[in-house]
Amino acid sequence: MRSKCLVIFLLPLVTGFNIKLLCQIDTDKPNLNLEFDGEEENVVTELERITFGITDDQIKECLRIYLGERPLDVFFRSPTPWDDLYRRKRWKQVEKSLVAKRGKVVRIITQPVKFSRRILENKTPKKANVSILLTDTAEVGLSSAWIDIKKLSMRQNITYDIEIETLGTFSKFSFMSIWGQSGESTQAVRIGSTEYLQVLLSAAQTAQAQLMATQGVMNIEVDIQIYR
């Protein structure tokens, strides 16, 4: 029996990575493969210096210990006085680097859900097999939520890819989450049997066939590590 799956991403820190969820969900053989990759580097902003707790006094004191003399000024990026030292000397500006480190399934909740119902009837005067094909449309949803948002300036968004196997084929869709904002996307998939089922009924007998599926909600958390 196939499942209707809603996947919620909880990101403790925001960045611009590709996150792929390869999701083959079956009540008998659940299979989840979470992949994430990417790294982003960009110049540290003044707001991020406050977030990271990097002050001019801290840097000056470190330089005093390392060089034996405390400088009057420190500069993290362009522009600077004296015709922009970073540009003129071709120095690399101070950057931060964010890397996706790990992902885990925090919680999975499942419950049975009723879908389409069909009435079967044997209109013949003797026992007979009645054919039925039970299919329906289910909605797969993917959403992202943000927790512990840091004051960071990111240039990229996060792209989510989901792949679900239904009726022997793979359904794929993706959506992009805007930095600092929750997002969601849904897509309809076909569920049910791929072949006609044969039900033996007595003469003038009727029966009811009910398509059942498992609705699942998975919470997945991705941890991001910062280097500076």
Automatic annotation (TrEMBL):
Keywords, alphabetical: Signal
N-terminal signal peptide: 1-16
Organism annotation: Manduca sexta
Protein name according to UniProt: Uncharacterized protein
